[in-house]
Amino acid sequence: RDRSVSRGLGDVYKRQFQNYLKGDVFENALELLFRARTMYIELLPSSFSPASSSDPSSPSSSSTSRKLSLSSPSSSSKNSKKDIELKLVEIYDLLGDIDQELEDFAQSISDYQESIRYYSLAVSMENDEKVINIYLKMAESLRWLDSDDKNITKV
After folding, report:
1. Contact 141, 96 (CB under 8 A)
2. Whole-prediction pTM value?
3. Beta carbons within 10 angstroms of residue 45's beta carbon
4. For residues 134 and 113, what is the distance between their CA atoms, to the nearest angstrom?
5. What is the pLDDT of residue 91?
6. pLDDT (0 to 100) of residue 23
7. Fewer Cβ within 10 Å of end Cβ, the chain: N or C?
8. Torsion-angle region of residue 103: left (phi > 0), alpha (psi -120 to 50) or beta?
9. Residue 119: its pLDDT value, please?
10. Going by C-beta distance under 8 Å and a sequence separation of 6 or more, which residues neighbour residue 31?
């Protein structure tokens, strides 16, 4: 009986994903990245995610606190937090790349900064090639940023 439920959910997810293959695939891919970013941010404890709401009456924060209270403070929960932060690094890095291609350099810099911030929370950043590549992409965005938009905060 459990298999039929999980198989039914798989069919639902498959149908929902197929909807993203219709229409403007680029816009749909961006929407998927935004949704993934939101979902991962909601999974982090509120002290680590600036975008999550601190209002306990909101549905997302109450479900997040329920999910977090069910897990024990063992090494596996620490690993999952680290895994979530590393996934957010990848998502923000991809969003920065996309914004750079769209010539929205101010937004790409912001995305790269968030990527570096989550990376610093997840692992030690000393001489890490991933961080160096993100900084290089951010430097490229800064190079092309209009002089009117140079009110970007320093990293």
Report:
1. yes
2. 0.66
3. 11
4. 9
5. 97
6. 80
7. N
8. left
9. 93
10. 20
Mean pLDDT by 10 residues, the chain (155 residues): 47 67 84 93 70 38 37 52 93 96 95 95 81 94 78 55
Roughly how many angstroms between the first and final C-alpha of the chain, as a whole number? 54
Alpha helices in 21-146, H assignment, sequence order: 25-43, 59-70, 75-101, 105-122, 129-144
Look-up of token digits 């999974």: 43
Chain centroid offset of residue 70 CA: 23
Where b means 16+ CB within 10 Å and e means fewer, 71-109 reads eeeeeeeeeebeebbbbbbbbbbbbbebbbeeebbbbbb
> What does the longest C-alpha to C-alpha distance in the chain come to?
62
What pLDDT was estimated at residue 147? 64
Neighbours of 61 (CB within 10 A): 16
Give the type of residue at 22: K
Q: Can you give the pLDDT at residue 28?
A: 87
Phi, psi of 91 (to 5 degrees): -65, -50
